[in-house]
Each structure stands twice: as C-alpha cells, then as structure tokens.
Design a protein that fits this description.
Helix content of chain A: 25-40%
CATH class of the largest domain in chain A: Alpha Beta
Strand order of the largest sheet of chain A: 2-1-3-12-11-4-5-10-8-9
Strand content of chain A: 15-25%
Oligomer: homodimer
Structural class of chain A: alpha/beta
Number of strands of chain A: 14
CATH topology of the largest domain in chain A: Isopropylmalate Dehydrogenase
Bound molecules: 3-isopropylmalic acid
Order of helices and strands of chain A: EHEHHEHEHEEEHEHEHEHEEHHEEH
Chain lengths: 353, 353
Amino acid sequence: MKIAVLAGDGIGKEVTAEALKVLQAVVPKTVVLEVSHAPIGGAGVEAAGDPLPAATLELARRSDAILFGAAGEPGDEKLPFDMRPGASLLRLRKALGLFANFRPAFLFPELADASSLKREIVDGLDLMILRELTGDLYFGEPRGVTPEDGERVGINTMRYSESEVRRIGHAAFRAARLRNRKVCSVDKANVLEAMQLWREVMTDVGKEYPDVELTHMFVDAAAMLLMRNPRQFDVIVTGNVFGDILSDAAAMLTGSIGMLPSGSLGSGTLGLYEPVHGTAPDIAGKDIANPLAAILSVEMMMRLSFDLPEAADRIRRAVSSVLAEGYRTADIYQPGTRKVGTREMGEAVLAAL
Amino acid sequence: MKIAVLAGDGIGKEVTAEALKVLQAVVPKTVVLEVSHAPIGGAGVEAAGDPLPAATLELARRSDAILFGAAGEPGDEKLPFDMRPGASLLRLRKALGLFANFRPAFLFPELADASSLKREIVDGLDLMILRELTGDLYFGEPRGVTPEDGERVGINTMRYSESEVRRIGHAAFRAARLRNRKVCSVDKANVLEAMQLWREVMTDVGKEYPDVELTHMFVDAAAMLLMRNPRQFDVIVTGNVFGDILSDAAAMLTGSIGMLPSGSLGSGTLGLYEPVHGTAPDIAGKDIANPLAAILSVEMMMRLSFDLPEAADRIRRAVSSVLAEGYRTADIYQPGTRKVGTREMGEAVLAAL
Ligand SMILES: CC(C)[C@H](C(=O)O)[C@@H](O)C(=O)O
Ligand SMILES: CC(C)[C@H](C(=O)O)[C@@H](O)C(=O)O
C-alpha cells in the first residue's frame, strides 16, 4: 500500500499528521505500508519553485492513494495560474484524471446542534454529492482576458462531452446502488445547451440502472431544496462548478466543515483524499484545527481505494465514540463538552481505535 | 403611469390579479394610471404563436414598469430556445437591457418559524442580492452542441466585459448607500479569468465609493456563509449564474419563496417586477397560491421605478399587518393561524391599506 502524503500549507500539515497516525493504526498487519511525503502548494514553491513540483506529481502517480492536506496562500489568485499554490490541487486532479469527486454530507448525531438548520431538518442527514472534477468552466478553452472594442473581456468556457458526462453518470449510479438507489442530476438545462446535453446523457445512462431512481433538478431549485429538505436526497450528481457551490452548501448543513472528508477517483482505484476545508491561515500552526475531516478522509480511502470496509468502519466508530465522549475542537465546541487541540483529538481517536 | 401586466402562465395570472388591485389602491390620486395586459410564455404561444409576441415586447418597451407573473411550462426546455415559454422572460430581460436584478431576502418576524434555519440565525435578516442579468453563460457565444471526435460536445460561454461589470458595480454601490454601506462581491476569481476581471473592475469601481465597504468572496464560501451567518451581508453583487443560485438559496432562508419579490432595471427607470417563485403548475387555478410576493413586487416598483417611497411603505405595512392578524396562505400556514386562499389574502391586504 503506497501512500503519498501531500500535506501542503496552513493547517494541512497539522491535520494530515493526525490522519496519518490513524492510517497506520488501521491498516491490516498483513499489508506493507509505504508512506512518502512530498511538498505541494506554497510548500512546493519553497522546495522546488513550483506549486506542483514534477517529483511530487511523479510520486502521486506511482501511489495507490494520496492523502492531501490543503494548499493555497491568501491572495495567491494574483499569481499566474501555474504558479498559484491554490491551483496546484486543480493541476493534480487534472493530471491524474480524477474526474469523480465524492463529497458526503452526513451528520454525527452528537453535532446536530452545531448546524444552523433546525434539528428536525438535518437529523439523520446522509447524502453524497458527486461532483465532476476535470471538466466544465474549470478547464474549458478558450479562456482568458482579451481586448475587444476598446475594453477588456473575460471569457471562460463551460464544456462537457458526452463521454465525460457518461463516466460521471456511471459513477453516480454505482454509488447509489451502495446507498438508497436514488440519483438526482443537477443541471441548468433550461438555459444552457451544455447542460441539456448533460441531462440527455444522464437520462440515457440511467436506463442501464433500472433499479435506481433518476430525477433531474435545476441548480437553483437544488440550492433551495438542500436548505429546505436535504434528507430527500441520496446521491446528487452535478458538474464541476455547480458541484463546487452545492457541496460547500451541503457541507454547511452539517454545522462544521471541519468534519467533512472527500475523495476523488479516476477510472482506476487511485484516489486523492482530502478534508473539505482549506488552509485556514488564521489558525495554522496553533494546534487548534479539527483533524476529523482529514481522519475521515482516511476512512474514505479505505473504502474507495482499498476496499477495506472493516478498517473504514473502525475509523468511523472511533470518531463517533470520541464525539460521544465529549471531545471537541474549537470549531465544534459547545458548553458542556471538552475542548481539545488538534493533537489531542488525534490521540483520542487513536485511543478509541 | 403606464403599467404593462404580463401575467403569463400557471399561478402567474392569479397572483398578478391581486397585485394589480394593490397597485391601483396605492397609486396617488393625482397620477393617471394606464394598465395594459399582454400575453407571454405559454399564453403568448397560444395567442400569437410566440412566447414573447412582438406586440407584447412593444407594449413592454413603451411602459414605465412591467408587472410580470410567471412563465413556463413543465418540460418546455425540450423546445428550441425561442419557442420556450420559460425562455420568454430571458428574452424580455435581454431585449429591454434589464441588467440589474434586485432580489431582497428579508424576514417578516411573523414568519421566522417558517425558516428551516434556527431563529437566532435568521432573525432580523435583511439582505439584497444584486444579480447581473444580461450577461454570463446565459447569453455568451459560442454556445450549442456540436460534434467533435465522434461524439457530441456541449458548450456555453461565460463572458463579462469591463463595462458590463462596471455598470452592475455602480448599481451595487448605489444600493448599498441606501442600506448599510456594505458590498460583498461574489466571484470565482481563483479559477476563472472572467471572474478575475470581475474582481478587478469591482475593486476599481469601489474606489469611487469610499464610504462603502467592499469585500470579495468566492462563490463556494458565499454559499456556505449564507447558511451560517447570513446577517453579515448587506448587498451581495454577483454574476448571472452565481446570482441565480445564491438568490434562490437566500430566498429559502426566509422560509417561503412565496413571500419574495424581485425587480430588474436597466440604465433608466423602466423596471420589470416579478415574484421570485415560478408558475407552480401543481397548484395553478386553485386559488391556493400566495400573492404576497407579487404584491411586494408592486412595493419594489413604487420604490425603484416611481420613487414613491410612501406608497411602497404603505404596501409593506399592510402586508405586515395581515401577517400579524394571522392570515396565511397554505405555503406559510402554521397551526394557530388562519388559512386563506389567494383572493382572500389579496382582499385582506386591500382592507389593511
Ligand atoms: C481551491 C479551489 C480551486 C477548489 C475548487 O474550486 O475546486 C475548492 O473550492 C474545492 O472545492 O476543492
Ligand atoms: C426560469 C429561469 C430561466 C430563470 C433564470 O435562471 O434566470 C429563473 O430561475 C430566475 O431566476 O428568474
């Protein structure tokens, strides 16, 4: 089991360190675990003058799974795209062909009160957003800022081919079969031709999964219903841009983005696993950050890349039990619970394992 | 005062009828009110074979303000763009150059419990989303589905020119001056060049309004913060697509989309006013729909197109008082209140006026 650890910037280093300990603790004794570290983001610029150093990409390619922390530095969007720490993640996703981004949003019952939604709306919430990750406005050409009629015009291209929609569609229906057999495809087919094609291909793919219910929803309605009645959803599949927005909104339903993992896969089993949160520069280096999202990313890794559901279940149970025991990092702290730092939370999970 | 009433389809007709009565009741005696009706959407197809008949567009152009209901028919996105009832609204916005879509999200204290968010999160909520309405992916060229390497590829173009961003920017800062002097510009400048230009121009426009605070936020973060802490916002200005999504999410914060009006303006005072909700075919013709969004659209019309703040205030007070008296349509009904139909709600507002 070859794992590349790309901890990156900000709190990425701290949370990844805890997640790695958990990984080492759950991997079956019979497995030879090979862990390598490489710099990415601001750390990549420092080490090799490139946010995604060639050696880092090469290491990632040769791995079975990647544990990613966070990358980016405040204001780095002012740099050219290839030099931006925050863009290193996009380049890595694209280079490895990781087109399927699984972003679960679930609620630990212990944290139901942390949500800004009423308890009766979010209790028992457990949905999966599947976001297409290598297409859409993120990568479409032409793009850029060009002069036109004496002023500048900014352009990006939303672009989806049939085969791109088809493969993320299959991933969605397969995921739904392991859950509640419902797929909601989110688009804007009433306005955008690219999304009409999306809807058409999804409908077509759906015919191969007669046991899974397929519905379609416009993105504006989906944003509303996520707030109104999120438990009606099982798997939501959508494009890169809509998925970026909806998955963050869905994450917020659970009250703490510090709790949520994600996993990105391509056509094989190589996957990149990362917490949904970013670098959080304001709290970096202070042993304050919540490592549970990174730890739960290891759970996803066990499930999706290594087909080790028992190891995954052990992690989930350990996290549940530390929450039940009252351990809380600052972001999920509530009076009456026990406030701990990053390392202490990691130790608590290890102890529970 | 020349008003074009384009009631359209579904519940559009019912709610517009009530709003029109309110309009007639609040217009000052000294004003000559000229009301004309014209078909749009499915009604346009029926009357003239075109969802936006030439005569309807002509009437709209010659008016001082348009009271719009709702347009669209289930599944109409399968028709060619120009023949789609739902697209008639887009064509009308574009033809009249209505680039600034004002979508307030505010909470009547009487309805705080209707929100799916906790009361302490939404109490006193009052924000304005200003959505650019004639640019972006909605109208950008090239667009369409074309064959490429043996398969079909769907394409749309996100496109913003400096002058397009500048004019919506000015509208945002002017609106903020009448409110709490805070503008949050929402973009995706970390990924999209079109949005980098957006951010740059907004920053530039902001320099002309030193008394207004300008912040920038990525759209994914904005979607989260709208749920987490919506009262931190005053005016949010954003592009057409992000605005479509965020304004519906913001609408949902208030608990009933049946309560929310919107207004769209161009460079003059001609405005189009419409409820945020759609045609709701499932409840159309049943005297069930909530007319308050349409009625509050007349309030916006009085304020934005006619500079009649007193007439506007009267409408707002009348709506508050019928809510305080316990009148509720089905969508906002709660035990202990008095359930009424569309017409009865309209009559109650008239009585309160
Ligand atoms: C950091 C940013 C480029 C990235 C994205 O938009 O994909 C992030 O928001 C995410 O969702 O992983
Ligand atoms: C009906 C649809 C085309 C429209 C839009 O996307 O603009 C609607 O969602 C709106 O927000 O007014």
